[in-house]
Amino acid sequence: MVQQPQARWLSIVGIAEDGIEGLGELARGLIESAEFVFGGSRHLSLATPLIRGTARPWGTPFDQSVSEVLGYRGRPVCVLASGDPFQHGVGSVLARHVAADETIAIPAVSAFSLAASRLLWPLPQLALLSLCGRSLDLIRPHLHPGARILALTSGARAPAAIADLLCTTGFGESTVTVLEALGGPRERVRAARASAFGIDQIDSLNTVAIDVAASPTARILPRVAGLPDELFEHDGQITKREIRALTLSALAPRHAEHLWDIGAGSGSIAIEWMLADPSLSAAAIERRSDRAARIRRNANAFGVPDLQVIEAAAPQALNNLPPPNAIFIGGGATSPGLIETARAALLPNGRLVVNAVTLETEVVLLNAHAQHGGTMTRVEIHHARPVGGEDGRFSSWRPSNPIVQWTWVKP
Question: Which of 23, 32, 42, 245 could form a disulfide with 225 if both were Cys (CB 3.0 to 4.6 A apart)?
Fold first, then answer.
């Protein structure tokens, strides 16, 4: 029997559908020598022949079980996980609470690697998603012609629901492959076109592969700031496309940063901020309930369902929110104390960007610039529009409302 080093009290062992037959000597020894073995019911069943200690299935809520694991610190504990514990697995959760020198981790082959090997798809060229307990809308930003997606799901109904989503967004010609119970005796691989998806009796343990094909009317989200206005549901209260691109450039999103979008309207700024990188987060603050509901619908439609929507008026709504790295004020800048509250809330090196359309807001920004510095920019966009006659042969430039933008960076 392989003995666990005294200092490394926690072992995290990946186990695949082939069970203990796929485990090496070290992984087997860690399970056998553990005083407590944690895992899902399936994991514990697969490892039953090796478990000598107390088997502990994960409870609800999951955080409570994690606390229980940590409560045994210093005693030999083994945590079982599917495949690679650090690829959308429990290993990533435990790593927030334990140090590397307390732990020994033995991964198995991940579901992503198994699926890619079955399809002969190179992993670096794929979008890898976990939809376990999460919204299927997370697929939407990755739906581009020719793209390939691997998605872990959390149930037998998910593949059909994914096929429905593809059809409703113009990607019905995509090939959907359902890979079930990979690496074990129940393994099965079946494929169908999304628009003719008829695969049934699907194992709850499945991975979905999507070979994306788009119709001419497909809802494709470009990978740049300044998405077309018509992609958003709005009532006219939206930062227009060109100004949105300039605003996001000024907000300058960086890895794992958090944004406050104050007076969010349609939520377009917060949504595009989150689309810039999966690590980004945002809170959209909007006092009107109809607009707050619209922001939620837009967030789902753009594949960022985790956008936090706060239905309240600023600055009162800003109390107790996680501190931001960037703040955009698109509406309500004339509210007493709002700009000062925003400046105080920003983390060091945080960016504050405020757009003004009205003269009254422009005055507020001029005063803020005089008092605090920063940069002032005035932008006016002209679009060609038909003029005169019914034949539409002539056009002229029509200006949109000029925008004054104040940008300030906190020292």
Answer: 245
Smallest CA-to-CA distance from 29 within 57, 59, 1 is with 1
pTM for the structure as a whole: 0.92
Q: Phi first, then psi: what are they for 251, rounded to 5°?
A: -70, -25
- β-strand 103-106 against 10-15: which pairing, if any? parallel
The distance from CA 319 to its chain's CA centroid, rounded to whole angstroms, is 25
Q: Of 232, 236, 215, 223, which is closest to residue 169 (Cα–Cα)?
A: 215
Write the single-letter amino acid at 75: R
CA dist 117 and 213 (Å) reads: 21
Look up residue 111 and give its two tokens: 């579901």
pLDDT at residue 2 tops 60:
no
One-character DSSP codes across 217-264: T-----SSSS--GGGS--SS-S--HHHHHHHHHHH---TT-EEEEET-
Q: What is the pLDDT of residue 32?
A: 97
Instruction: Classify burial at 191, counting beta carbons within 10 Å of its beta carbon; exposed 0-12, middle 13-18, buried 19 or more.
Output: middle
Cα end-to-end span (Å), the chain: 58
- Which tokens belong to 155? 């149930």
- At 93, is the secondary structure helix, strand, or coil? helix
Q: How many CB atoms lie within 10 A of CB 6?
A: 8
Per the listing, tokens 């901020």 go with 273
User: Which alpha helices (DSSP H) does 77-202 contain, by range?
Assistant: 90-94, 111-119, 158-168
Q: How far apart are CA 351 and CA 327, in angstroms?
A: 6
Using only C-alpha atoms, the chain has a radius of gyration, in whole angstroms, of 26
Q: How far is CA 247 from CA 266, 280, 329, in A?
A: 15, 16, 10
Report DSSP state, residue 347: P
Give the pLDDT confidence of 299-355 residue by residue, as tens digits: 999 999 999 999 999 999 999 999 999 999 998 999 999 999 999 999 999 999 999
